[in-house]
Amino acid sequence: MNCLDNYIGLKGYCSEVTPESGLYINDLSGIDLKLLANISNPDQPSYKEVWESLYTKSVNQLQSDVLIRSQKFFKTNILLANSITGFYEDPFETETSSNHLKGTTIEVDYNTSKYISIFLNHVQLYLSSAVNGNIYIYNLMNGQLLDTIAFTGSIGNNIININKNYKTYGQETKIFVCYDGNIGNSIKTDNVGLTEIAETRGAKITVGSTVLKDNLTLDGDSYGLIANFNLKCDISEFICTSKDLFKMAFYYLIGANIQFERLTSNRLNKYTLTKTQEEIKDLHDEYKEYYEKQLDVILDNLNPNSDQICFSCNKARSYKYLNP
Predict the structure, then answer these.
(1) 36 CB-near residues (< 8 Å, 6+ apart)
(2) How far is it, in rounded angstroms, from Cα 248 to Cα 242?
(3) Rounded alpha-carbon distances, angstroms, from residue 154 to 88, 157, 186, 234, 306
(4) How many Cα neighbours within 13 Å face the side chain of 186?
(5) Using an 8 Å Cβ cutoff, are 130 and 154 in contact?
(6) What confidence tens digit (pLDDT) does each residue in 270-292 have?
(7) Which end of the chain is less enclosed by CB atoms within 10 A, N or C?
């Protein structure tokens, strides 16, 4: 969830930048650089690795907790579709090598949900010889090359993992998943076509051309490449579009996780023992309680635009308020 990168700061961090939130974790009682350095371990040898690990853990936990707690207010469709873009023809028919980028498009219209993401799991590519190559993913709206995934190919059907997420932000989104047809022969593949949310089309374009939607040759043949993808509702986009509201909850969550790490650390020194186990636990419980109260208030009062695709009203809401 990139929108929270460096959102909460750490004073004294080697590459310190002013955090967007204006909050520094070491303004919380019981947290400083020396503490982070002294709860490190061989896998996290410095305060930098400890901080980055706990920060990532907190981002993932916030995402998970928001998803779970939002269920009492909204019916959340997490997975809208799991689909493939095509299948091998029967009987096999050779797709001969050519000077083209060849593959399939995955297209989502603009009038769907702003929370939809295209998650590309893997592609299948049948090869007639053992060759190495790349899978390319392009944004067809502006021609940008989004990702290049190298693979070592073998004769026959190759499964090439992608594991990449492409957000739509509620905009018309078209990606082109392809390979360089110069690497050799493949097997022709028929295109599946439509899901309820997305359309897929076989496509090719001459290598070296500007890869835009209007420049592609589109037909029912995806030229030996089959993409497996999910259409999902991305809770991270829900958080990112309201992140200012989540900042105090996120702040206290990081604080609680640091105290928990301190509580369970097997390193005994004057920094980890400046407080008793009971005092450390009290700090952890205090920060965790603040986090949970903040999260409850936010979700009790926050109303995402119901689009009947990702979020729809589940029950009447009751509003809560925090005292200053």
Answers:
(1) 10, 47, 50, 51, 258
(2) 12
(3) 17, 8, 12, 35, 47
(4) 30
(5) yes
(6) 555 566 788 889 999 999 999 99
(7) C
Q: Residue 97 corresponds to which tokens in the numbers above?
A: 């090598």
CA 105 to chain centre: 20
What torsion, rounded to 10 degrees, do the Cα atoms 306, 311, 316, 320 define?
A: -90
Distance CA 192, CA 105 (A): 11
Would you say 67 and 76 are in contact if contact means Cβ atoms under 8 Å apart?
A: yes
Assessment of whether the complete model's pTM goes beyond 0.70: yes
The 10s digit of each residue's pLDDT in 179-223 is: 999 999 999 998 887 777 889 999 999 999 999 999 999 988 889
C-alpha distances out from residue 2 to 6, 56, 75, 237, 308, Å: 9, 10, 25, 10, 26
**Domains of the chain, CATH where assigned:** 2-72+236-313 (no CATH), 79-233 (2.60.120)
CA 228-310-122 angle, to 5 degrees, is 10
Contact 108, 118 (CB under 8 A): yes
Check if the beta carbon of residue 301 is closer than 8 Å to that of residue 242.
Answer: no
Q: Which residues pair with 202 in a beta bridge?
A: 104, 219
Confirm if 178 and 164 have CB atoms less than 8 A apart: no
